[in-house]
Amino acid sequence: MNANLIDIEQKSINILKGLIMDMVRNANSGHTGGPFSSLNFTYILYKDFLKFDPKNPNWIDRDRFVLSCGHESALMYSILALMGWIKVSDLKQFRQLNSLTPGHPERGLTPGVDSTTGPLGQGVGNAVGMAVAEAILRETYTEKHINHFTYFIHSDGDIQEPVSIGSIAMAGHWGLNKLIGYYDANEIQISGDVSRSDSTDYEGLYKSNGWHVQVIDGNNREEIRDAIRIAQMEIEKPSIIIGKGTIAVGCSTMEGLASTHGSPLPPKEISATKSKLGLDPNKFFDLPDDVINDFRKSYSFANREIECWNTLLDKSLEDSEFSKKWKISFSSKLPEFDLPKYEFGQSIATRKVWGSMIEAIADIHPTFVGGSADLEPSNVTGGFAKKVGDFFKGAQSNRNFAFGVREFPMGTALNGMMQHGGLKVFGATFFVFSDYERPAIRMRALQGLPVVSEFTHDSFWVGEDGPTHQPMEHIMSFRCMPNLMVLRPADANEATILTEFAFNQKQTPSLVLLTRQGLPVINRDKYPKAESVLKGGYVIDDSENPEIIIFATGSEVSLAIETKKLLSDLSIRVVNLACWELFDQQSEEYKLNTIGPNSIFKVSIEAGITFGWEKYTGRNGLNIGINRFGESAPGEILADYFGFTAEKIANKIKKAIS
Q1: DSSP characters for 596-614?
Q2: Of the listed 407, 454, 556, 606, which one is catalytic?
Q3: How many CB atoms lie within 10 A of CB 358?
């Protein structure tokens, strides 16, 4: 490499270090040491290898990049400013209210951020999901239309979170050869040396999980270039480049110190470091034109490449069959199809409806994907798996994922698939195991990723598996989460409608809570049509001038109707509140007409904790639930034991109003 190129490259690296120091110091908050350690790799990746459209950060066939160690956001923002996607003025607003440069990268806010990261480890799973999405789309639409890499960076802290290890195992098993990671192994985490808490052989761990592994000097840019080239040529395995480095490399006196991890450098250290790097200590947020021009000199080639791709896609879209499939893949809405119908007189576990629905959707949507966390028979996803085949090495057009017992990695991978775009995505497990997946559900709600979770065995009716498997507090805990639909249908027909609704969401994830036990199909000739559930709550059984209103969800709706029959001497309204979040979106007039005035005595029935029902029943209402953990016994026995029979509930209501 000639001296002039080395000089401008080194100058660029040093300028970016100056921006990072200035950002963190100006905010009086943030991380300097990690961004310095990861900078050589990131700069080389973006300048020499990353495929992107300089004019459109959301180009479909761009390479994806995930900064799993989101605390290194100053690194990403300095690169994005160099690219021209954000401004130096944005860097000056680092970690400030309403800026494009928040404390951790946020997808949908900052151009060029493909994944919201911060909670360590999840970004690794997101990258795995993105690589899966690329593989499925590539197999579906050929390499001419989809053919790109997914890159990620993780830190010593990321790899200690078990979710990353589960994600690594899935990626190796699936043979995601277009997934390339960089491990910034600087041996420091926020509390000090990594050796205080970890002595794992991560080179061995990656190899044992089927990854191609390279160990390099993370500060040697030629080794970085060679390693990326070798990783790109790997055709069977995902690749990890372990870069041995030093935190805060290049600092004047604080190189290698843990204190640089989560704090701004002192002003004197910044001044001395700038001098050491050949920068003017009196210049702040300096991004000179020669550094910008050198980085962007490949933009003209990139623009021609994008023009060719667009021309090719336009020609392909002239084919009606290709166009139809492509538009379905990249639409937020499902194509119209006939929903399964269920007749009054049947008793059907709502989980069985799920199997019929996903099999029907698989027939009409070319990139509809999902899988179960090793509970296929219980989640009723086995028919789907048989229809579309398991995704694995050598069969990456198949659309079912055998996730294994990996709820959290499953959740992060599903998020990555949805972040990538082009797929409809679901995951499935028991509702009680949502505890394992919850951090991923929170991150998808935060990002507006409309992943659909099927959670079966939604109450004590799990039965003999006992309290470890019986969700009690779970439904209320998820109702507390912003931007999340918690859907609990009352019968099979409501289950089909709410499942279709969930898959048509654009920016809201959904939990579809389904029963193990059979529920009676409600007589829709006598009661309102099942589509009423799309209001979230509706009067399913009314009386003139009601003196009592009973609220119920899911399996308790039919129980509430039976209870009303036993209290025939009282005027009772039964309200199905299948989805609180949907109900809250209705007009004030509709909501008031449904839940009635405060003067009416109100009762809630739900097979879970009662905390939260005061929202509808008021301070003096009767909330019937289970404020404890479960028991091990058949479901019918537990229903009687916990008082979830029409007779026992009727007696509680009579006692409450007497």
Answers
A1: --TTSEEEEE-SS--TTTH
A2: 407
A3: 28
Q: Do domains 347-520 and 535-657 have the same CATH topology?
A: yes
Q: What is the pLDDT at residue 614?
A: 97
Res 6: pLDDT? 59
Q: For the chain, give every domain's residue range.
A: 3-301, 347-520, 535-657
The average confidence (pLDDT) of the chain is: 97
How far apart CA 513 and CA 579 sit, in angstroms, is 10
**Residue 151 to residue 132: CA distance in whole angstroms:** 13
Give the pTM.
0.97
CB 420 within 8 A of CB 107: no
Q: For 392-430, what is each residue's pLDDT tens digit?
A: 999 999 999 999 999 999 999 999 999 999 999 999 999
Residue 323 CB: number of other CB atoms within 10 A?
Answer: 12
Q: Could you tell me if residue 34 is left (phi over 0), alpha (psi between -120 and 50 degrees) or otherwise beta?
A: alpha
Could you report the per-residue pLDDT of 320-375, keeping only the tens digit for each?
A: 999 999 999 999 999 999 999 999 999 999 999 999 999 999 999 999 999 999 99
Q: Using an 8 Å Cβ cutoff, are 416 and 391 in contact?
A: no
| 512 touches 455 (CB < 8 A) | yes
Please check the confidence at residue 3 and state whether its pLDDT lies above 70. no
Strand pairing report for 518-520 and 347-349: antiparallel
- Catalytic site includes residue 407: yes
What is the CATH T-level fold of the domain 3-301, as seen in this structure?
Answer: Rossmann fold (3.40.50)
SS3 readout for 355-397: HHHHHHHHHHCCCEEEEECCCHHHHCCHHHHHHHCECECCECC
Q: Which residue has the tokens 């990854």?
A: 211
Rounded to an integer, what distance in angstroms lies between the CA atom of residue 429 and that of residue 417? 18
Q: Which residues of 486-521 are buried (b: 16+ CB within 10 A; e: fewer)?
A: bbbbbbbbbbbbbbbbbbebeebbbbbbbbbbebbb
CATH class of 347-520: alpha beta
Cα dihedral value 129, 135, 139, 141, nearest 10: 80
Confidence of residue 109 (pLDDT cuts 50, 70, 90): very high
Fold annotation for 535-657: Rossmann fold (3.40.50)
Q: In terms of Cα–Cα distance, which of 317, 350, 323 is closest to 495?
A: 350
* pLDDT value at 1 more than 60: no
DSSP conformation letters of 22-89: HHHHHHT-S-SHHHHHHHHHHHHIIIII---BTTBTT-TTSPEEEESSGGGHHHHHHHHHHHTSS-HH
The 10s digit of each residue's pLDDT in 133-187 is 999 999 999 999 999 999 999 999 999 999 999 999 999 999 999 999 999 999 9
Parallel, antiparallel or unpaired: strands 485-487 and 510-513: parallel
pLDDT band (50, 70, 90) for residue 4: low
3-class SS letters over 508-557: CCEEEECCCCEEECCCCCCCCCHHHHHHCCEEEECCCCCCEEEEECCCHH
